[in-house]
Design brief:
- The chain is mainly beta.
- It has three helices and 16 strands.
- It folds into two domains: 102 residues, no CATH class; 143 residues, no CATH class.
- 13% of the residues lie in helices and 35% in strands.
- The strands form four sheets. It has a six-stranded antiparallel β-sheet, with no helix packed on it.
- The N and C termini lie far apart (50 Å).
C-alpha cells in the first residue's frame, strides 16, 4: 500500500507534468503562428544598390542607416494598416524612407496575406517575407521533447557583474556576429557538477535568457544552441532553472534565420536530457 509520502510525491510529479504539457502546447501554438518564423520564405540582405526582392513588393536599398523602398504603380505595402504607396511621384511610384532601426529590432509591414519583416541583425538590414502558405509552416507537425522530469528543474544563484559585459557571439548565418550585454551569470548544480551560465537580458521584461549547448547537442538535441528563459532573481539572487522548458531557436528549423550561438562558457559538458529535441524535419534528414 503506497505511503502518504509516495502519494504526495506522485501528485507533485503529476502536477509538474500537467503544467509542462500546458506550457509546451502554448509554445507550439506560438511557433505555428501564420506569420511566425516557420512562415519565412526568403532572407534578403539589403545593400546600397536598389534591388527587387523575391516575394516582396518594391525596390529596396539602404544608405546611411536608412532603408528606402520605391513602390511602383499597383504595388501595395501597408504599415499599421496604412497604405504606403501614395503614387504621388510623376512616374506613378512612391519612395518610402524608414527611420533607422536599432539592432535586433524590426518592424512588420503587410503585403497581401504576407507579413514583410524589416529588421537589423549583426549591423545589417534584412527583409524577410512571412507567408502563411509556406510549406515549412503547413507541413509542421510539432517538435519532440523529453518527457518532463523534475530532476532538471533546479535552483540557482544569479551573480551580477560589476557592470554589464558586452559579449560577442557567432550566428547561424556565416559572416555576422551578435553583441549582447550580459548583466551577470547564473551558478547552479546539476548531476553533482557546479555549473555556470552567462545570462543575457530576456525578451520579456523581468526575465533573463541563457543560450547553451550540452552533451546531448548534435545527438538528441539541436547541435547549435538551445535557449532557456529565466524569471528575474528574487531579493536574495535566487533563480529557478527549469531545463524542461529549454527550446529551439528558429535556426533549428530554417536556414533563413540569424540566431545567435552560445558564448563559449555556456557550452556545458553535462547531458541535459530535458526540453526540446531535434525537430522532426532535421531528424528525418530533410
Amino acid at each position: 500500500m503506497p505511503t502518504s509520502t509516495h502519494t504526495e510525491q506522485d501528485s507533485r510529479t503529476a502536477v509538474f507534468a500537467a503544467e509542462w504539457e500546458q506550457w509546451h502546447a502554448a509554445h507550439e501554438r506560438r511557433r505555428a503562428d501564420p506569420h511566425g518564423f516557420l512562415a519565412v520564405t526568403h532572407l534578403h540582405w539589403l545593400g546600397a544598390e536598389p534591388s527587387r526582392l523575391e516575394g516582396v513588393p518594391g525596390i529596396w536599398s539602404v544608405q546611411n542607416d536608412a532603408v528606402t523602398v520605391v513602390l511602383g504603380a499597383g504595388e501595395s505595402l501597408l504599415r499599421d494598416g496604412r497604405e504606403l504607396n501614395s503614387s504621388s511621384v510623376t512616374d506613378g511610384s512612391t519612395a518610402v524612407a524608414f527611420d533607422p532601426i536599432p539592432e535586433r529590432e524590426g518592424i512588420n509591414l503587410t503585403a497581401g496575406p504576407a507579413v514583410v519583416e524589416l529588421a537589423k541583425r549583426g549591423g545589417e538590414y534584412i527583409v524577410r517575407p512571412r507567408h502563411p502558405e509556406n510549406p515549412l509552416l503547413n507541413e509542421y507537425r510539432g517538435t519532440p521533447a523529453y518527457a518532463p522530469d523534475p530532476r532538471f528543474a533546479v535552483g540557482g544563484v544569479y551573480v551580477p557583474f560589476e557592470s554589464p559585459r558586452p559579449t560577442t557571439v557567432g550566428a547561424a548565418v556565416e559572416g555576422i556576429v551578435h553583441v549582447y550585454e550580459a548583466p551577470g551569470e547564473i551558478r547552479f548544480e546539476l548531476d553533482g557538477q557546479d555549473l555556470t551560465l552567462t545570462a543575457f537580458n530576456g525578451h520579456a521584461p523581468g526575465t533573463l535568457s541563457v543560450l547553451f549547448t550540452d552533451a546531448t547537442s548534435g545527438k538528441t538535441t539541436y547541435a547549435a544552441n538551445r535557449s532557456l528563459t529565466v524569471v528575474a532573481p528574487d531579493a536574495d539572487g535566487r533563480v529557478a532553472l527549469d531545463f524542461n522548458r529549454a527550446v529551439n531557436l528558429p535556426c533549428a528549423y530554417t536556414d533563413l534565420a540569424t540566431c545567435p550561438l552560445p558564448p563559449a562558457e555556456n557550452r556545458l559538458t553535462v547531458a541535459i536530457e530535458a526540453g526540446e529535441q531535434n525537430p522532426y524535419e532535421r531528424q528525418a534528414g530533410k
